[in-house]
Sequence to fold (790 residues):
Amino acid sequence: MSNTELVVWQNIPLPTIPKEVSKIEDLVTYGVQLQLKDKRQIISAFNNNAYEMVSTYTWTKAITSLKNQLSKMGVSFIAEMLDRPDINEHTDIQQAISEFEAIRLAEEFGVISGTSAFRLKKAMETVTHFNQPELEEDEESEMTQDEARTIVRTCIQGILGYNKIEAAIDFKNFRIELEDRTLNADNPYILKLVQSPYFFHRTVIRILLSIVKTSNGAQLENSLANSNLIIPMLWGNLQHPERWQIGRTYSELFTNGQSIAASGLKRVLLKVKGFDFVPEDLRSSSFIKAANEILTAHEGMNNFYNEPKPVSTLYNMGSVIPTPAFPICITAILCVKLGNGYGVSNAAQDIVNDILKNISKDRWIYFFKECLQYNDRILYKLNYDRTLDRWLSLFDETLIDTVLLEVQEKDLINLLKYTKDKDRNRLMRLASQMYQKIGYANK
Amino acid sequence: MKNGKPISLRPVILGEAVSFLETEGMECLITQNGIVSLVNELVNYREEGKDLFPNIYIVDSIELVLKSLPLSQHCYIGQGEKTKETMLRALKKCAPLTKADWSIYIQRNLDNFSYGVFRAGTSLLSVTIEDSLIRYGTEEIKVILLHQISDKLIEIKGVQNEPLLISFGGREEANKSPIENQDEFIKTIVKNVDCNLKEQTSNFYIKVFNEILKVGHGTLACVISGNKKTIPKKLEDGIILKERINIPQIIKELLAKDDLQANSKLNGFFTIIIGMMESDGITVFSDTGDVVAYNVFIKHPDSIAKTNTSGGARSRTFLTLCQLIGKGIESVYIQSQDGKIEIKDNE
Fold:
């Protein structure tokens, strides 16, 4: 995201480590969250060439600290922000959310800068790769000194170098405004919001839903009035996953007996003619839960080993995925199919292929039209050679031609054409641009 | 021989129905006549010797209504000419199907009426159809509700109008819905319930009290402070529950687990509390949403025992309890068999 782009909030990164600092002994001095014994252990392990150990240790410290910081914003808030109905007040955030989700949230709230998020995702993939139990024990499969140093640097620069990491001031202020005031269309936040990239739209919708679900009295009234203003403004551009989230929230409020909140969202849905996005039954919640378990496995340590079990669970739930759950289910399945920069879970591939075979042409059209343009997980994968190659072998030409007849968005048309032509370079460039258009940094 | 003087409620109800429909933006000659006939039928409605309390929703689009009600079900029963007779047939054919939580709909189409039954929600906690369509209704969804709320008392509700109460008895205060008094009393039951559970606890008790009102059973209840672990001495003559029925806690469990077991637990207590309130004596609640005791009897002081109240023992008990307000009792509720409700609280 360029600095000149109009955004509602953003993190202004503070320089923590000067560029010229590269010695491990000097790097750790910037890690204010690290205790003296942590620093000693990092230096000692590094100097003993135990690079996997040192990077895993530092990475775990950093990601645990980040998740801790996020959980202080409230578990139900985090659940809503991730669109994870399976997370509740009894859930251990450290276990339930994946590292990818933690980094993404931190970037969305302006807790870390886009560049930090980009570097942390790279570090995550490297650490995850070298922790695979099935990795062969040869020199080629060992982490290098440079890789370890980069990981330590990234963790300190992004997280451990600050006493406390917090959401961007404007993010916090906007969240408070949404709760404490009834905004009007002239409000500077609203004016900026409309022109901001997609992830701000998605984040604001999720903040509103979270407040509507959990507040009472004046705060509830304000958040409902603000929903009534903001959701119709953004609805036309909202993708189906977000629309389903609004419909599902309405359904939950209704079944949980929160009459005032439910009636407020009903007004919004009437205004945007959005009742088609209210789930007809509760089946979709189980599918959403299963899909999130796949993603947690995929984005965690030992992913290749951990993926087959939740994938089988989803497969056994039936071949017809309810529409409200389809966006997250197809994302999870494609994540396993495309794997990561280091490969795929071989044991999960057969089941994933079976699930993909059952997806009808109509559902693929739906995926390309409504679920891909702002799908950061899939677009992120198309930025890398090995995952991109797997994508290119995934769709046959007839299917792409059929989908092309239905899609009107320019980026999606090009994405399909480059996929059909197997034009790797242009597809990768386009995916990177689309990823940045959502609002995430990719450099 | 002198001619008798005929008195009919029909012109009065018809007049009210006309202006009611107009305010709702649902003007229709046939509907207004149909409403009058339905009101007449609903009074102490019986089928096969059993009292029924159907809710009838007159709607313009059942499709939109169902879309706006999450997890709704409906069953189309039939259709007929656009006449009041079809509306009455809808009641006749559908009323026996509404014993649980189903309601009747009559959809006004261009040239006919179609009808059937519908329901929504998953548990006792779910927002009621009435709340969703009427209390928190919107002008986009055109709907009118007709139902009998207590003995000889019919209520017509819409989104734009104040409720219209039609009393067929000789009751005083027919201008005030008994449900308003119920709501006031329930507010004192949930006064100190955790604010995140207050609305759900209140909705639960509204459903309990509505059932009591429908069955036309007299009842007495009072609220004590939830802080007190023991019941006031004067209320000790009765069944004091060893373990109070903590409704907010059960609701919290249901919201957290959202499983059949938690749901069944709440359903179980729903019926047991109704049973307690139908028993003789006073049902005691706490202001933290618990049921503390039932079948409680209290001695009337001489000053009240000698009072010549028309209501008998229950009214005298009510007066006795009223004297204890501020002395361990927060509020008192009486419902007589004819649906008359009085409350007295600390304010």
Q: What stands out?
A: Chain A has 25 helices and no strands. The interface with chain B takes residues 88-90, 214, 216-217, 250-251, 253-260, 262-263, 266-267, 269-270, 275-276, 278-282 of chain A (CB under 8 Å). Chain A has a mean pLDDT of 90.
